[in-house]
Design goal:
One of its GO terms (molecular function) is helicase activity. It contains 18 helices and 18 strands. The protein has about 475 residues and is an alpha+beta fold. It has 4 domains: about 120 residues, Methyltransferase, Cobalt-precorrin-4 Transmethylase, Domain 2 (2-Layer Sandwich); about 60 residues, no CATH class; about 160 residues, Heat Shock Protein 90, CATH 3.30.565; about 70 residues, Orthogonal Bundle (Arc Repressor Mutant, subunit A). Strands 12-11-13-14-16-15 form a 6-stranded mixed β-sheet, with helices on one face. Helix 10 packs antiparallel against helix 11 and helix 11 packs antiparallel against helix 14. It is elongated and about 90 Å long.
Length: about 475
């Protein structure tokens, strides 16, 4: 791109303007962050607020000074392309930094633990220990989820959960587990991979405390007051349906239930949101500490965010064009075999295409706080404050109904009738007596659901569907 073209752009992940070299530390941080993240261009001699060229007084001297600064202050050694250029009669320094194969680079004065910086939007962010390790792995071609967990054994995998997920797809014998890299060979032993434990591990959150999903419905357009929330601690593939059930439940408030199953009347973009949820689970940097995958439903938008910045070399614009680097190949392969992913790199372009085709505002993608966030503006506000009459306690509390087993069962039937086994699978309930006593029988007795074959209660073809009373209960978010 020409210099004139760069001056028309705003500062971002791969572009920064500096008026002069009077603050060399900030320039060095930018150079290091570019080299560690996705490369970039630094233009010196430009007002960073107006993007107008102001020029530099002695370009040859400043060029030499800058090159010496970078050579002396950055480790491992970094040699960017520095050029003198002229635009609108003003002389500028152009510093072009490429994504480095020697990353992570750091400022020598701060050391390899505190002097590593990455680029987030138009700012430079100090990398923590986990992110530094991720930068090293990205150069070495090692994926976090392929790494072995040598202190564990095959018994630490929930093979029943894995087999349920793959039911009808393949039989999960030991060889299949090795092929999927849920198990790996390590020092003569067969042990779970980190991906295997993230997907189907017993005590998964003991080993990975942030491997869960937090869903919240907030009152208004900020997080000051929460109306409803759930914490999903299920195998990652199963989490997709649970997240979507939560979103559907809150999208249905005030909707005409007889119309709700028609795609064109949903007040949220269901398919694009599903793609974003899958993207968050598959591409999260699960080595990071500090927060799970989060899904936040506001009156005017829905946000889906995951821990971890974009992989080195990838920008938001690259993602929109279908460029993809698979951070977690073990998780990604399992999701693809389960038909949750159609084709590598197609998810993000499909999000934007289907959102537009459905008539919703265009979503956006931002990096902030070492996290990636998809933001879906709603075509029309869904105001939750009108529903507070059935909430107990103060407005900042979650309604007790959010964990009500009957409401959970009713929400599982939104898309149509299900059998008892399908309902238990949807609700992640293994214990049949618990399902019958706390979920199924109360819903039947109170008239919220009915049998599809009432004359044959024990039929193997029996399914359950919502009654009008059940539909009203979902719209209100409470049961009697």
């Amino acid at each position: 791109m020409t210099i004139s073209g760069l001056l028309k752009q705003s500062e971002g992940k791969t572009l920064e303007f500096k008026r002069d070299v009077s603050s060399p530390r900030n320039i060095l941080k930018t150079v290091v962050a570019f080299a560690n993240t996705a490369g970039g261009v630094l233009l010196i001699g430009v007002d960073n607020k107006t993007r107008k060229p102001v020029g530099i007084a002695d370009p040859l001297e400043e060029e030499e000074r800058l090159c010496n600064l970078i050579a002396d202050a950055v480790m491992p050694r970094l040699v960017p392309n520095v050029e003198i250029t002229t635009v609108e009669g003003k002389t500028l320094l152009l510093v072009e930094v490429f994504l480095s194969s020697l990353r992570p680079h750091w400022l020598k004065s701060e050391g390899p633990e505190k002097g590593v910086y990455v680029r987030l939007g138009s700012t430079n962010r100090q990398a923590d220990r986990e992110l530094i390790a991720e930068l090293r792995r990205s150069v070495e071609g090692v994926s976090f989820d392929e790494m072995p967990m040598p202190d564990l054994s095959i018994d630490d995998l929930d093979l029943d959960a894995a087999q349920r997920a793959f039911f009808g797809e393949r039989e999960l014998n030991e060889q299949a587990l090795l092929t999927l890299k849920l198990l790996v060979r390590d020092q003569g032993k067969t042990v779970p991979s980190k991906g295997g434990m993230l997907l189907f591990g017993h005590n998964r959150t003991f080993h990975f405390p942030d491997c869960w999903v937090q869903c919240g419905r907030f009152i208004g357009t900020d997080k000051a007051r929460i109306f409803d929330h759930i914490e999903i601690d299920e195998p990652l593939p199963q989490s997709v349906d649970s997240i979507m059930l939560f979103l559907k439940k809150h999208a249905m408030r005030g909707a005409d239930f007889s119309e709700v199953r028609r795609r064109d009347v949903w007040s949220i973009p269901l398919e694009p949101l599903r793609e974003a949820v899958i993207n968050a689970l598959v591409h999260a940097d699960w080595s990071q500490r500090g927060g799970p995958v989060r899904v936040a439903f506001f009156d005017d938008r829905i946000e889906v965010e995951n821990p971890g910045i974009l992989p080195p070399g990838i920008t938001v614009e690259d993602m929109k064009q279908g460029v993809s680097k698979i951070r977690n190949p073990v998780i990604a392969r399992v999701f693809r075999e389960l038909r949750l992913i159609e084709q590598w790199g197609s998810g993000v372009p499909r999000i934007f295409r289907e959102t537009k085709e459905s008539g919703f505002p265009e979503p956006s993608i931002v990096e902030l706080g070492l996290r990636v966030r998809f933001i879906f503006p709603l075509a029309k506000k869904i105001v939750v404050e009108e529903q507070l009459e059935f909430q107990t306690g103060s407005p900042t509390q979650s309604p007790t109904q959010s964990t009500d087993p009957v409401i959970r069962l009713l929400s599982a039937l939104v898309d149509g009738p299900l059998s008892s086994g399908e309902l238990r699978k949807r609700l992640n309930l293994k214990h049949r007596p618990t399902f019958r006593e706390n979920y199924l029988h109360p819903a039947l007795e109170k008239g919220y659901i009915e049998m599809t074959i009432p004359e044959k209660p024990s039929s193997r073809l029996q399914k359950y569907r919502l009654t009008e009373k059940g539909k009203r209960a979902i719209r209100k978010g409470e049961v009697e």
